[in-house]
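Q: How would the structure tokens look for this protein?
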Amino acid sequence: MRAMKQSDLSLVIDIENRAFTHPWPKQAFDELISHYARVLELDGKLIGYILCHVIMDEAVVLNFAIDPTLHGAGHGDYLFAESLKELRALGSRIFYLDVRESNAPAIGLYQKYGFSKIGIRKDYYSEPTENAIVMALIRE
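A: Here is the predicted structure in token form.
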């Protein structure tokens, strides 16, 4: 895991476009690369990324994906866990994220690290329209 660089954006956007039915536009990544942005490499190849917004002691996971051809191999678990550790070391103690209601593997991952459901965002996602589960983790 390492900090995302501007030169990583084309590979990150490629993963984004293959991982999501309604991917973020390139401009969204351009604006967020100066925040907490990490990529995961495997054998020198970029295979995933995570973007967070950090304000004081709170971190919001904005976007997180692993190359869809590598799902189920533990890479997302590693990237998520290492990011949480790094964010905690930087002073974050409250974490938030949104996840599609139907994304059982992601929900399971987040629950594994102590996240719990705190709310629902009705019809938050499109293509297909779906509610988001809002999850949080508070570490004292």
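The first strand starts at residue 2 and ends at 3.

The beta strands are 2-3, 36-42, 45-55, 58-66, 94-100, 116-125, 130-138.

Upvote if useful.
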